[in-house]
From TrEMBL:
Enzyme Commission code(s) on record: 4.3.1.12
UniProt xrefs under InterPro entries: NAD(P)-bd_dom_sf (IPR036291), ODC_Mu_crystall (IPR003462), ODC_N (IPR023401)
Domain of life: Bacteria
Protein name: Ornithine cyclodeaminase
Keywords, sorted A to Z: Lyase
Alphabetical list of Pfam families matching this protein: OCD_Mu_crystall
TM stretches of this protein: none
Family of the protein in this entry: Belongs to the ornithine cyclodeaminase/mu-crystallin family.
GO molecular function, a single term: ornithine cyclodeaminase activity
SUPFAM superfamilies: NAD(P)-binding Rossmann-fold domains
Signal sequence residues: none
């Protein structure tokens, strides 16, 4: 229980604190620890409130709210997706989030989530791949080498032992950026001239492109038997990355079907096309990868429980790291009914200071 005298103070993790926290823990260790929280919450899936995210779409992007609760804690994330921002030197995605105590309704944490979203997305991809990727996979193609790409690579290295990367982006400078950023992490890196070239020899293919449109990043001829596809970029209505024929050949795994059918690759399919929920794979109810020839597709759109896991993880790190500051965010008068009296007392204080 928090100290009653400091309930108005909410721990705030700034961008600077988040970066220092990640580096203090170590990027790969951070991804491992965060992955454990993500997996733990998938394993108690039935405890959570679940709803598709609340989205406000515009011509150039989307702004979303992603709420959930496990009955004891409530969390939400505010996040945007504006691919056009890159042309103006701005982030495609920016986010912040809050974790609150359900019993009192009081916030317990306010944090940046632009960096944290990249980390939790990568952590979720790698957790899922533990259940779906071919055994002993060592080579991953990353098609789309923007802000998410390095996080994906490091998560797959940390959790699955990926050693070799094949990189492709329509913008060669993005591929070069990704290659340089990952140069000190022990990967064998190959830069490729096309998506088809990148897919050659890869056991795992990650697509993480940004354009808000129906695109065909992967065509059917690129996908051989036994491949695991980690489809990250398709995450809103009208935005996909794969040819429909790939979906028809694959076993499709999703987070929350009502959201994925609106936003994921499966928006291309009939509304009753069979999909498998990842929480059922993780708890052993439904098999994941069954054999070496199976094509598995994680149709990842991002779900609120993953942000909840990230918020929970960061909150648990506060005491041991001290990497936060307290914000005087809540009006919390000594007498709960005397909110107006707070204003009067402030007025008297200001008058005294002026005198």
């Amino acid at each position: 229980m928090r100290d009653r005298t400091t309930l108005n103070l909410v721990p705030f993790v700034s961008v600077d604190h988040m970066m220092k926290l990640v580096l203090k823990v170590g990027i790969e260790e951070f991804l491992k620890e965060l992955s454990a929280y993500v997996e733990e919450d998938f394993l108690r899936w039935e405890k959570f409130d679940k709803t598709p995210r609340v989205a406000s779409h515009s011509h150039d992007g989307v702004i979303e709210l992603m709420p959930t609760s496990d009955g004891a804690l409530y969390g939400f994330k505010y996040v945007n997706g504006h691919p056009k921002n890159m042309k103006d030197g701005l982030q495609t995605v920016a986010a912040f989030g809050m974790l609150s105590d359900v019993d009192t309704g009081y916030p317990m944490l306010l944090t940046e989530m632009t960096i944290l979203t990249a980390l939790r997305t990568a952590a979720t991809s790698a957790v899922v791949a533990k259940y779906l990727a071919p055994e002993n996979a060592q080579t991953m193609a990353i098609i789309g080498n923007g802000a998410q790409s390095e996080f994906q690579a490091l998560a797959f290295k940390a959790l699955l032992g990926i050693k070799s990367l094949r990189l492709y982006d329509i913008d060669p400078s993005a591929t070069e950026k990704c290659k340089q950023n990952l140069a000190g992490f022990g990967f064998e890196i190959t830069t490729c001239t096309s998506a088809e070239d990148a897919a050659q020899g890869a056991q795992i293919i990650t697509t993480v492109t940004a354009d808000k449109q129906n695109a065909t990043i992967l065509t059917d001829n690129m996908i051989g038997s036994g491949i695991h596809i980690n489809g990250v970029g398709g995450d809103c209505p009208g935005k996909t990355e794969m040819h429909k024929d790939i979906l028809l050949r694959s076993d499709i795994f999703v987070e929350y079907p009502p959201q994925t059918r609106i936003e994921g690759e499966i928006q291309q399919l009939d509304a009753d096309h069979p999909v498998i929920e990842m929480w059922q794979v993780m708890n052993g109810t439904v098999p994941g990868r069954r054999d070496q020839n199976q094509i598995t597709l994680f149709d990842s759109v991002g779900f609120a429980t993953e942000d909840f896991s990230a918020l929970r993880y960061i909150h648990d790190k506060l005491k041991s790291t001290g990497l936060y500051e307290n914000l005087d965010l809540l009006a919390d008068p000594d007498e709960p009914r005397d909110l107006f009296g707070m204003l009067l007392r402030c007025e008297k204080k200001l008058a005294g200071e002026a005198a």
